[in-house]
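Changelog note: in this version the structure field was regenerated for every chain. One regenerated record is shown below for reference.
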Amino acid sequence: MKIELYHYIHCPYCIRVRMALGFLNMPWSSKVLPYSDEATPLALTGKKMLPIIKMDDQVMNESLDIIKHLDKENVLLSENWGDFDQTLNTIAPQIFNLAMPFWVFTPEFDPASQKYFLKKKEAKRGPFSELIKNRGIFENEIHPLLTNLEKRLKPFWDSNSFGVRDIGLAAHLWGLFSVPEFRFSEKIHAYLMSVKELTKFNYTNFHWREP
């Protein structure tokens, strides 16, 4: 089966699929899209939403649906996702407020994509210059949340086995590596490095070559 993944480098939902593919040892072809590219996702699925995976003649989006489809032997999904979105929703606002102003200046974004991203995201979150000024506030909010998350790592999320919830959590947390001088606790850093190894994940390997 030929697998093509249409994705953004920074996107945690796209990172979920990259991690799942790596963990499941499934070869795939990368299609990194400019953020301003509306035509490609619309042509594939009828909406501007990534990730999109193309498997021979089948096309899908929605990260968890893609992972469920890939995980034929129920290796990752043996741990139920359940209400895990509630956990992610407690940390996502601070992660995005901290990371987005730095994501937009990575090599992933050409000038057109920068302009598109800024217009879309600043309409929701306010000027990125203000987010950077308020970085201390967001860090003060997120560190207690991360301390609470640590209590659920046993060493994986509520389990001694790696599962889909670890992909969901790590994919969000990984974005904070883009924030200069942000520091994880030793336990969370070790957790992320363990997930990285298990999933053969490299956050930046698409930054430095042509998509």
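Spot check on this record: The CA atoms of residues 106 and 156 lie 30 Å apart. The mean pLDDT is 92.
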